[in-house]
Each structure stands twice: as C-alpha cells, then as structure tokens.
C-alpha cells in the first residue's frame, strides 16, 4: 500500500483578515469596504482560501455569506491566528513602551472585559505600569475630558474622543432568586443614583409600554444595588455582566419589555495621548476589527 504524505498549506494572513471581515459583515460588499479592496478581489481571495483548505467555507444560497460548518470552525482559528500575529508584531515594535497608563472602567467591565485585556498586555509590555479607575461611565467621560485618565471604557455615546465599540452586551431585567414578581402591582425598581444610563433606560422602556413602576431602592454603588436585588428588594436593568447564581432573569414572558443591547465603547483622550495609550488603543482597535 502506497502512502503519500499530504503537505499542510500555509494560510496567508491577508486571506484570513478578509475572511474574518466577510464573516463580520455577512457579505463580500461589507468586507470589501472594511479591508479596502474591490468586491471582486474579496471574492477571489475567498476562492483562494477555500482552495487552500479544501473545504467550502460559505453557503451558496442568497446574497448573505453565511458560514458553513467548516467556515465556523475556520473562523475561530482565523481570529486566533490574527490575534497572535498582531500581538507578536506589536510586542516587538513597541518593546520599549513604559510609563504609567491610567484606564477608566465602569463596574460592569472591571471584573469581566478588563482583566483579560490587561493580563495579555501586561505580558506584552512588562515595563508598563497600569492604573485602573473604577467609576460610572458619565464620570469617566468627565475624567477623560480633563485628561485625568488616558483611556476609558464607557457606555456613553460620544463623538468628542476617538473610540470604537469594544463589546456589545444584552441588557436584561434582574431579580433575586426568591423575588416574587406581581404584574398587577407597580414594578419595584432597584437603581443607582443619578447619573445612571440603566436607570433612564429602564424607566423609559416601562413608560413606553405603560407598565407602572416605583423606585424601591437607590444605591450609590453597583455592589450595593446588586445586593439589594439579590435580597429581593426589587428588579434592576443591567447588562448581562451582572448575572450570577444569586440572580435570575425576568423577560418578555413575564410581561416586561425587551431592553436594547448596551455598547461598551473604548475611548482615548484627545489631548496628546502618551505612547503607551496609543499603542494599547490601536492594538485593541485592530483586534476588534478581527472579531
């Protein structure tokens, strides 16, 4: 019996970037705009990639470029390969990055999004000292305006600073495990004091569908508000990052309105950001385009 060793193809990074762009935009046209190529060039690149891996990566029905099972599998690897490539290049290009970087973060992301990012970049830039400021989004935007922080994660939508969407998360209605929800009574709300993006979101959506409500508990910190919700004092609107074993979710089946997704934006200060801030911001921006 003859055995022929099968050679492993080398995947080209340009092909992978375009492939991820197609998956993100669900079309060749959207990918073409993202990677600054013509739609015909994008199509040729995807044909080349499929030839390299020997599998169909896109379903052939309709204009939308839905991924096949092999395409979904390939997408995970493509993102990992691009992430490692970009991290390696940035680490070597900016190995002399040092100083102190001050990053602002709301409570929602301080224990979810932020730790993973900081862990990776502290390894890539060991000379860099990072300080974290945890405050609510409106306060962080004020700090960014006053140059008190170099970068900030915020739910506030602003065109005053360079930024992009770091993550989009669903907003949900949370209550304690033993909370007794009675749709015939005004909804007891747990909220942070002003200013609060989620408080305004909850009240506006309840008013739109005519659900009566009352403020049952107001806290100055998210941990205090969460404790009140877990204790059964009321219901709170918040991003999915709040979820834990001591809470459960109420939804449309309970008669509550569906809440919009919340965007966690990453902003960098406009006034002479230091080198470390620019490197980290551009690194995260490039990675975000690969997601």
UniProtKB/TrEMBL annotation:
InterPro entries: LTTR, LysR_HTH_N, LysR_subst-bd, WH-like_DNA-bd_sf, WH_DNA-bd_sf
Signal peptide: none
Keyword flag tRNA processing: no
Assigned protein family: Belongs to the LysR transcriptional regulatory family.
Protein name: Transcriptional regulator, LysR family
Transmembrane region(s): none
Sequence ranges assigned to domain HTH lysR-type in this UniProt record: 11-68
Record organism: Enterobacter lignolyticus (strain SCF1)
Domain of life: Bacteria
UniProt KW keywords: DNA-binding, Transcription, Transcription regulation
Pfam families the UniProt entry points to: HTH_1, LysR_substrate
PROSITE patterns, A to Z: HTH_LYSR
Lineage: Bacteria, Pseudomonadati, Pseudomonadota, Gammaproteobacteria, Enterobacterales
Gene Ontology molecular function, alphabetical: DNA binding; DNA-binding transcription factor activity
Keyword Glycoprotein on entry: no
């Amino acid at each position: 019996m003859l055995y022929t060793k099968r050679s492993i193809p080398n995947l080209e990074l340009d092909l992978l970037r375009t492939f991820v762009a197609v998956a993100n935009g669900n079309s060749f046209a959207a990918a073409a705009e993202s990677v600054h190529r013509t739609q015909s060039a994008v199509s040729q690149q995807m044909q080349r990639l499929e030839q390299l891996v020997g599998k169909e990566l896109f379903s052939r029905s309709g204009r939308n470029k839905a991924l096949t099972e092999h395409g979904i599998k390939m997408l995970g690897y493509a993102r990992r390969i691009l992430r490692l490539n970009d991290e390696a290049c940035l680490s070597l290009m900016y190995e002399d990055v040092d100083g102190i970087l001050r990053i602002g973060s709301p409570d929602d992301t301080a224990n979810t999004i932020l730790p993973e990012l900081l862990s990776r970049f502290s390894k890539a830039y060991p000379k860099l000292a990072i300080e974290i400021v945890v405050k609510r989004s409106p306060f962080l935007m004020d700090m960014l305006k006053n140059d008190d922080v170099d970068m900030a994660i915020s739910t506030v939508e602003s065109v005053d600073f360079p930024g992009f969407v770091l993550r989009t998360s669903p907003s949900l209605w949370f209550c304690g495990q033993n909370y007794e929800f009675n749709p015939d009574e005004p909804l007891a709300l747990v909220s942070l004091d002003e200013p609060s993006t989620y408080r305004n979101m909850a009240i506006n959506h309840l008013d739109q569908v005519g659900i009566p409500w009352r403020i049952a508990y107001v806290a100055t910190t998210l941990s205090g508000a969460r404790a009140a919700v877990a204790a059964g004092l009321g219901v709170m609107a918040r991003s999915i990052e709040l979820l834990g074993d001591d809470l459960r979710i109420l939804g449309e089946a309970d008669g509550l309105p569906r809440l919009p997704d919340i965007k966690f934006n990453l902003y960098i200060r406009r006034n002479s950001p230091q080198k470390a801030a620019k490197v980290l911001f551009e690194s995260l921006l490039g990675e975000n385009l690969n997601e």
